[in-house]
Design brief:
Layout lengths: L15 H8 L7 H7 L4 E5 L2 E4 L4 E4 L2 H4 L8 H13 L12 H13 L6 E5 L2 H18 L7 E5 L8 H6 L3 H4 L9 E4 L4 H4 L6 H19 L4 E6 L15 H11 L3 E5 L13 H5 L5 E4 L11 E5 L1 H13 L13 H16 L2 H20 L5 E7 L2 E6 L15 H11 L2 E2 L1 E3 L3 E4 L7 H24 L4
Parallel strand pairs: 3-13, 5-6, 5-7, 7-8, 8-9
Antiparallel strand pairs: 1-2, 2-3, 4-10, 9-10, 11-12, 12-15, 14-15
Bound molecules: 4'-deoxy-4'-aminopyridoxal-5'-phosphate.
The site of 4'-deoxy-4'-aminopyridoxal-5'-phosphate has 15 residues, from helix 6.
GO molecular function, one term: pyridoxal phosphate binding
Keywords: Aminotransferase, Pyridoxal phosphate, Transferase
Family: Belongs to the class-III pyridoxal-phosphate-dependent aminotransferase family.
Length: 470
Amino acid sequence: MTPPPPASPAHGANSPAARDIAHVLHPYTDQKAHREKGPLIITGGKGVRVTDEAGREYIETVAGLWCASLGFENERLVRAATEQMRKLPFYHAFTGRSHMPMIELAEMLIERAPVPMSKVFFANSGSEANDSALKMIWYVNNARGRPQKKKVIARKKGYHGVTIASASLTGLPANHKLFDLPIAGILHTETPHFYHEGRPGESEEDFATRLAEELDAMIVAEGPETVAAFFAEPVMGAGGVIVPPATYFEKIQAVLRKHDVLLVADEVICGFGRTGNYWGSQTMGMRPDILTCAKALSSSFLPISAVMVNERVFEALAEGSHQIGTWGHGFTYSGHPVSAAVAVETLKIYDEQDLVAHAAEVGALMQRRLRERLNDHPLVGEVRGVGLVAAVELVEDKAARRNYDAGRKVAARLVALGEENGLILRALPGDSIAFSPPLVISPAEVEEMVEKFGRAVDALSAQLRREGLA
Ligand code: PMP
């Protein structure tokens, strides 16, 4: 057995950092670089801020992973969890078993749905929710006697998770080629990013028309009788915070209706106020047949996700049980009572504190301040976003809209400068920095976040100039 390599001198032999390096295999991490750099160990949080083991405080500009919507402390959620743990710490939902937290949460989600929905299936993560939605679609088309209608179209730069099927739906090369994905029957259509994909002289609406025509052509080429569903985030998150152009979803949905293709809205990031409405579907004019959500559903205090289905999909599932065999899908922790109790309490807090309206208000401020501070910056190509989700894209050549060579790792350098300025930042593919702070962020904290970020961008600019790169 090879002994673990020694921790770098910066980490004491028995320090938490050294123990991390010795034993933890981190998700989405350069494993080799991690042995040198070590972890950033977070020990506590309060509001929009987290604290590391050295006592340094940071604003969490992405709410962890776009998810800790109520920030990093909440006594009501602690109470909801402990009370439920005492009452009934676990029960499952297989073969018709049930419990009150799950019933209440399903009811609340159906009441709040952006379009009439019929039933809710629970899982534990966004990936599982999307896998479950995909299996529902396949099962339903088997039940309806059209087993050939199974293909699914998602979009380049979409993000739907990392399990085998959800990673296949994801439209990012790094999630595919190194893992022998996508699986068969999953296709990707163009990303609706006007800044990069729009053609000279083309209006945003013309661009939307072109993308809808491309989708139509793809469905026709594949054979409409073989295409079952279209998966889309209302606003793409991890692929770069891409807000589709005006009229995009209206035109896309007309194509889907024409070919009897179901629409799945992946609201894992956009759900629960992020885009300034309760659902991203409302912001973008989507009328999904199936809706997946997670993250802010429980403010991420515990893992839980949900798949909402409309009556038509549910009826086919129900009929299918007798026609082709029981819907044999579910997780041990589907609708876990403690997670469900925390989610119920989270949704009550959103209502009581009118947090969706708050997100719309501070979101508008964040969009405005980011643009005022950075639109004219030589290093910034585009500031984009809606509500309380945004991205700032770094470019080498502003006029040509050209990013730096990936090897320069400019976004990673900005993340490091952010840390020095008291911000935890998240770099996305294509040198974009994401903003998706907790919904509870105050206007003063938005100002502070933008101010510190502006300083970090200036510092990066100065570094690049010194290196002759800007
Ligand atoms: N869908 C979207 C839109 C997401 O942003 C994510 C995670 N960032 C997922 C699905 C996958 O969720 P999870 O990491 O909980 O599996």
